[in-house]
Amino acid sequence: MTRIAIIGAGRIGQVHARAVLAHPQAELALVCDPFEANARSLAEAHGVAWCLDAAEVFASDDVDAVIIGSPTRFHVDHILAAVAAGKKVLCEKPVALELSEAERCLRELGENTDVMMGFNRRFDPTFSEIHHRVADGEIGDVQQLIVVSRDPAAPPAEYVAGSGGIFKDMTIHDFDMVRFFLGDIVEVVAIGTNVDEAIAAQGDFDQVIVTLKSAEGRMATIINSRTCSFGYDQRLEAFGSEGTLSADNLTATAVRKASGNQTEAKSRVMDFFLDRYVDAYRLELDAFLTAVADGSPMSPSVRDGYEALRLADAATISAHEGRIVSL
Ligand SMILES: NC(=O)c1ccc[n+]([C@@H]2O[C@H](COP(=O)([O-])OP(=O)(O)OC[C@H]3O[C@@H](n4cnc5c(N)ncnc54)[C@H](O)[C@@H]3O)[C@@H](O)[C@H]2O)c1
Question: Which CATH superfamily is domain 2-112 in?
């Protein structure tokens, strides 16, 4: 049984708490959040202890592992303090807001491999099936990848302000997926625009398109929007020399309707990450607990987090300076 503390009891902290509570090899031992109302409401809902200061988590003998769901600017300090205290770590994306912080994390971790990055989409059953089938050679050599990721609604302004911008906060998942499929990236071109005035006022984009070229000459396109009228739009297509493998949006049931003005109509797509990726978070936790139990290196690693952040920086430069960025 792995005793887990959750640091940060916000949106993603609550998602992880549900996954931990449902897992037979995990126990939710402690919830930490400096905002007492947040710590209390998550902890007391499940009858577990809570605290306000992360130092208490790291000092606790009742905690084997921590899940870090604090705002991004705290991730590196929380990772390093947890590892120094001998805890295993599952940390949310992105690893940091600044590349220099991610470099510090890598440097101070050295050979330590006890930290897993929360790139949950790698564990999504649909996307991981495509990944396995690509790896098995089912569509020959992969030549192009298309990743579509649109959120149903923009996050609150205060979240956007601390998020590091769309490339680091949102596209980071897709940068990781592109690396997962195509390996290292050598060229990045990005453009961005706004349909959301509140986000524009913060100097951030809310719609972006990024094109990337891998070291092996394969290409990927990522399409992101902070808003989408029909829900959480999560699709992927791998195009290879022998065919394509693609995944459409998931709906709650497989029921389809035909009528006078519709054919093949399904119910709404799943609303947001809590529903769409519930299996991914469960399988991510499962992979984490397996690595905790057998002591194997965590994957995706902090190096993966660093590389995705490097792509976010390159995309930011490309979109603002209107040029191809070579890595
Ligand atoms: N993998 C995913 O699908 C996914 C989804 C959403 C968010 N995230 C990531 O999770 C992190 C949190 O995002 P969120 O949407 O849950 O934000 P949120 O604002 O809903 O929650 C953050 C929580 O952290 C708490 N907090 C603030 N300072 C803290 C500190 N010093 N120590 C501990 N807790 C602190 C806040 O009180 C709040 O309860 C971000 O890094 C974000 O990028 C990942």
Answer: NAD(P)-binding Rossmann-like Domain (3.40.50.720)
